[in-house]
Amino acid sequence: MADATPPATLRLEGVRKSYGVGTPVEVEVLHGIDLKLQRGEFAALIGPSGSGKTTLLNLIGLLDEPSAGRLFIAGQEASALGEMEATQLRGRAIGFIFQYHYLLPAFTALENVMMPMLAARGRVDAKMRDTAAALLDKVGLTPWRDHKATDISGGQQQRVAIARALVMNPALVLADEPSGNLDTENADGVFDLMRSVNESGGTTFLIVTHDPRLAQRCDRIIELVDGRIVSDAPNLSVVRRG
Ligand SMILES: Nc1ncnc2c1ncn2[C@@H]1O[C@H](COP(=O)(O)OP(=O)(O)O)[C@@H](O)[C@H]1O
Ligand SMILES: [Mg+2]
């Protein structure tokens, strides 16, 4: 029977990842991950260091390929795409926020936010510039728009990185310890910002964090241990809020 339900933003079926394949040090670090994220979900990915969180995020972000299993982004099987198509899908559908923001130091805050547009389109027109400027405004950085990335604080740099992650209006944002090198106040600010984008635009978030306080602010908490999902449940303290 036909089903009008839109495809999940993200779906993983039996995803495995081994490093060093074909060498004496071959090791499997993800052992068959099944996971589904619907549009608008705001989920935390937690687990001890070395459990495979970054490896999983890199696979979901199409930065690396699974050794086995299937991965779908908005219903499209990403694991079946060639490198060029995967790059295009990544640019269109996925935003990244890393612990270290990787801003380009020689460029201004605004230019850094526009960078994904330049990568995707090969040029930036006035409309794209307006979009980027509006996002910088949303993260409270209009006064720093034309400052070099190196001339603003760490918290401000992470806000630029968030604006950059959102500039292509991605369906899915992947954040790996986004507040890992920020103080509590800036960590809260970054988190509030991701939450407001999630609530206003229906953007799906998957956020790796080792901070239980921040994980408790997510709607769903997925726990990875030794390359396996050992728990995955709604965070009732948040869900009851609405
Ligand atoms: N490029 C790599 N080559 C070999 N082993 C790796 C590589 N990247 C990560 N690993 C190993 O995979 C496991 C999971 O790492 P990672 O995904 O970084 O965990 P987490 O982000 O949860 O700390 C660790 O044992 C790590 O040493
Ligand atoms: Mg990691």
Termini gap:
33 Å
Helical amount: 25-40%
The fraction of residues in strands falls at 25-35%
Model regions low in confidence, pLDDT < 50 over at least 5 residues: none
CATH fold-type name: Rossmann fold
Tally of DSSP β-strands: 10
Number of domains: 1
Q: Overall 3D geometry?
A: globular
- How large is the radius of gyration? 18 Å
Biggest sheet strand line-up: 6-7-8-3-9-10
How does CATH name the architecture?
A: 3-Layer(aba) Sandwich
Order of helices and strands: EEEHEEHEHHHEHEHEEH
Distinct ligands? adenosine-5'-diphosphate, magnesium ion
Say which CATH homologous superfamily is assigned: P-loop containing nucleotide triphosphate hydrolases
Q: In terms of structural class, how would the helical and strand content be classed?
A: alpha/beta
- How would you sum up the major sheet? 6 strands, mixed
Description:
Helix content is 35%, strand content 25%. It has 242 residues and is an alpha/beta fold. It has a single domain (40-63, 83-239), classed as Rossmann fold, CATH 3.40.50. The strands form two sheets. It has a six-stranded mixed β-sheet with strand order 6-7-8-3-9-10, sandwiched between helices. Strands 2-1-4-5 form a four-stranded antiparallel β-sheet, with helices on one face. Strand 9 and strand 10 (228-234) form a beta hairpin. The radius of gyration is 18 Å and the shape is globular. The model has no long low-confidence stretch (mean pLDDT 91). Bound molecules: adenosine-5'-diphosphate (ADP) and magnesium ion. Magnesium ion (MG) is lined by residues 53-54.
